[in-house]
Design goal:
The complex is a heterodimer. Chain A is α/β, with parallel strands linked by helices. Helix content of chain A is 35%, strand content 20%. In chain A, helix 5 runs parallel beside helix 6. The longest helix of chain A has 18 residues. The longest helix of chain B is centred in the C-terminal third of the chain and has 17 residues. By secondary structure, chain B is of the alpha+beta class. The N and C termini of chain B lie far apart (45 Å). The chains are: A alpha/beta, B alpha+beta. Chains A and B meet through helix 1, strand 3, strand 4 and helix 4 of A and helix 1, helix 2, helix 3 and helix 5 of B.
Chain lengths: 278, 142
Amino acid sequence: MSYRTYHDVKGDDRSHLGDQVAEQRKRVADRLASIGQVVAVMSGKGGVGKSYVSSLLAVAASAEGRAVGVLDADLNSPTVGRLLNSGALEMTDVALLPAVGDLGVKVVSSDLILDEDAPLRWKSALSSEEFVWRGALEVGMLREFLADVEWGALDLLIVDLPPGAEAAKDLMMLVPSVAVGFAVTIPTEESRRSVARAIRVARDAGMPLGGIIENMSSYLGEGSEEPRPLFEGIAGDALAEEFDIPLLGRLPLRPERAPRDVIDDSEDLLQQVFRVLA
Amino acid sequence: MKFLCIDCDEQMKFIDRQEPGDGTFAAAYSCPTCGRQIAMLANPMETQLVGSLGVKIGGDTLDRDPMELVRAEMEGAEAKLGAKVNRPTWTAESRDRLDRVPSFVRGMVMKIYNDWAMERGLTEITPKVMDEARVDLGLEEM
């Protein structure tokens, strides 16, 4: 017995899965049509302060008069909502409305959906096999944060990516029009190696890179005039040389200060960033 | 996925879909020539894999509900994002008018009307309610 092939049978299969995926991508593109630039803040390494840098860039750009949103794509360890003192999300029948944080920055973060201290969990009858589809669900959640959130007319949407080399690639699949990415590192050699891997993945995915930001280059306690050394290493300079992109600046660790409180002290770095975005 | 009736060499037609439990996805098909019916039962693993992509088996189009995947799959999300307690309903005419608002601000406009109506104890948004709200809020362009 022989059978006809799928394409020999001319009737449609009703599911139109290919069309559904294309429609998903169109929704993202349609939603982002009202946004001037999508900017990624990335790093291969966790704990380097990507969210702090993202929040600082957001409030500084807002202070300059730009309409800014931040998408916290770190779904499992979200912090942007707190850093920007954001309010609550609001759901309507047609879209999710972002929360509003410091200086009017619009914020969407899984932190604003999760209960206090609750981890991100997926409802599944097959939780023991969750590793198989968890990645697809997380990309799907990011897609809905892009497509189903009514960002409004923004000059800048900053996407705070999670740690891991593949994060930039996932974003580029959803948003091929990302204007520029900034890589965040701390000074250590371990960070340099991790960020270098992430930069290579980002470049392979076609993300234009605007420069390196070295965070926690020193420690500046409240009331101190002089920053003190914090980590050994020259990762910022080394990455800039290795990838031929500029080191845009260094930020000290100032644990008592919220991003909105360090705008003035970060002027040199911010001017470099805004020059890239111009 | 297509189903072929071997006896008739005819593509079977979709007639029903169900999720009967334990994550199983069931789709029923019948042969338009001989009338034979079959049910395809996808195991929970296959159902979950496809569902994780945010697409629908046997569906004609994507569901238009926003944040549908997150609300369906993420623990706690439906309670935070799905609750529509006390929100006014929209008549077809008012919905048509809302659809003329540019999509990138449509949700915010809806919220403005909803908030205005709820403050006044109204349970339905009609074109007349929209007109009154517009005048009251000074939003003649909406």
